[in-house]
Amino acid sequence: MLSAISKSKIIDILDKIILSCLILYAFTFLLDININFLTTAFIFGIIKLFFIRPQIKIYSKHFYFIAFFILCTFLSVIFNDISSNLSSYKSRFISPLIGILIIFLYQFTKKQIIIILSSFSISLLLNALIIIYQFLQGETGRLIGFASNYMLLCGINLLILPVIYTIAISKSNISNKLRILYLSTILINIPAIIFENTRIVWLGLFITFSIISIVSIRNKLKSLFIIILILLSSSLIFQFSPESYQRFQSITDTTQSTQSNYQRILMWNASIKMFIDYPIFGIGIGNYHDKQASSYLTEEFIDIPYHPHNTFLYILSESGLLGAISYISLFLYLFYNAINNFKSTKNIISLSYIACLIAYNINCLTDTMFCGYNIKTTTYIFWLFTGMYLILNKQIITNYNNKDN
């Protein structure tokens, strides 16, 4: 049997490995690599349970709403073809929960969370510099730097940049070096995001940045100045990219001349029809593509979609009314809890999480970035950020003081 000293050393080594994996994840999440370092960190956390049992106290109802969402969507699997849908359900709904469950396996501190967030920031900063370089070299289209695809980069921008922006402009007790890093990430990402040519990111970030500026800056003239400055600088950058300006003008165009918008409307209509035909349990998790091809495809579709480019309609069509209610309940509670915490504490943690929620949900209006098909990294990171929010707000306390027992 291991002695208390050797057991303590093993736990310390495992903790260092877990932190290293989390930092590696923050540096590699944009890349198309076979190793998911967040999952790796989780595995080492499970190994750690062989040597120590944490004392966990939960002071929120988050996990009730998460469990309700998981249960209701799982009913769609049970009442449809469970053999073919189970794998898709696990991949999209269960596996990403690693992001929030890891908080029970590793004792996060504020310093470690700042290190992880800063690693995310550096990744986005470097990627933005590459995108600007690609633009200066005359490349056009969806510029993505070293990211694996533009949809992933779209979701990541709307998850991470609002958090960084909120911390950077607020009177938080971070060092000047960190503030400079976060502000640099925001400033360099403004032109990069315009050159990426993803319209929902433009809208999502402007709306979120404006809300956070008004809420977090007491001097309203100063907050208004920042909003106007973002508008003017963005307008100037658009002048250097006619392609980006053209895409900006097409935001409200729903005619066939703008096929991306027109096709989305077709997909949304098809999803509503699926819900009408299968109202309670939906068509089944993972069945959207096949059901679209067999029953809901019209000659107006350019190709057969794998999802409707709207998270709510995706869940509504695949898991029916029960899944939709649980999804709405989950995010209403997340907003309610974060807003209540901010109203009572005025802390930057709650405000930055609110910013993340706003931007993420705007993104989900035109894409399936939560428990969606193909792009799963955003769901992993969303749950990771939710876990960090709970830790920093002391709504979950994990105690390892019995390490040497």
Account of the 3D structure:
With 405 residues, the chain is mostly helical. The protein has one domain. It is 70% helix and 2% strand. The protein has helices at residues 4-28, 37-48, 62-78, 82-94, 98-101, 110-136, 150-169, 176-196, 199-216, 220-238, 242-249, 259-277, 288-296, 311-345, 348-366, 377-392; strands at residues 55-58, 396-399. Strands 1-2 form a two-stranded antiparallel sheet.
How many domains is the backbone divided into? Answer: 1
Shape: globular
Report how far the terminal alpha carbons are from each other.
13 Å
Largest sheet: 2 strands, antiparallel
| SSE-based structural type | mainly alpha
The percent of residues in helical segments reads 55-70%
* H and E order: HHEHHHHHHHHHHHHHHE
Radius of gyration: 22 Å
Number of helices: 16
Task: Tell me, rounded to a whole number, the average pLDDT.
Answer: 92
% residues in beta strands: under 5%
| Strand count | 2
Contiguous runs where pLDDT drops below 50 for at least 5 residues:
none
Physical arrangement of strands within the biggest beta sheet: 1-2
Features:
405 residues; mainly alpha; two-stranded antiparallel ribbon; 2 strands; 2% strand; globular
